[in-house]
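User: If only I could read backbone structure tokens as easily as an amino acid sequence. Underneath my words sits a plain record pairing an amino acid chain with its backbone structure tokens. This is the protein in question:
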Amino acid sequence: MLSRRLIRRVPSVFGQGRGGPAGRCRGPDGRGVAGCSGAGPWPEAAGGALLLNIDQGEELYTRAARAEAEHFSELIAGAAGTPGLSVIGSIRSDYYGALQDDRALFPLTKRIDVPPLGREAIEAVIRKPAALLGAEFDIPEIVPMLAEVTSHAAGGLPILRATVTPD
């Protein structure tokens, strides 16, 4: 399950190295976290800063059981208050309602909206990787057609990815 893999990664970011309280392996609810050693310097102890990036945040709400999602959210919310740690994440706009319903994370959010790509940018997203690989489209007209359809579809980029990516 995706959330278990992510939950194990959070402590591994904080839990490697020397020293530190064993309480780091507990979420705000007091539950232990699998795979957490409890040892390791916090970012401020190491004299630096740490950035935790959570990409494709919508997967927390689509792939995880509700209890696991809540536990992960609580862990991230608890970690977000750590000096020297910044947490950023991305979520598709069509899952923003799920984030709003997340009682642990939503109160901590500062939203930055990224506008959708236009048709020309979508064409570049399709053409450039193919060009880098030396590949050509059998039907060159398909690229502007795909770009046009994608530019008008809510959540169109994931659909485009599924269309042009071989499995």
In short: The radius of gyration is 20 Å. The first strand starts at residue 50 and ends at 54. The first helix runs from residue 2 to 14.
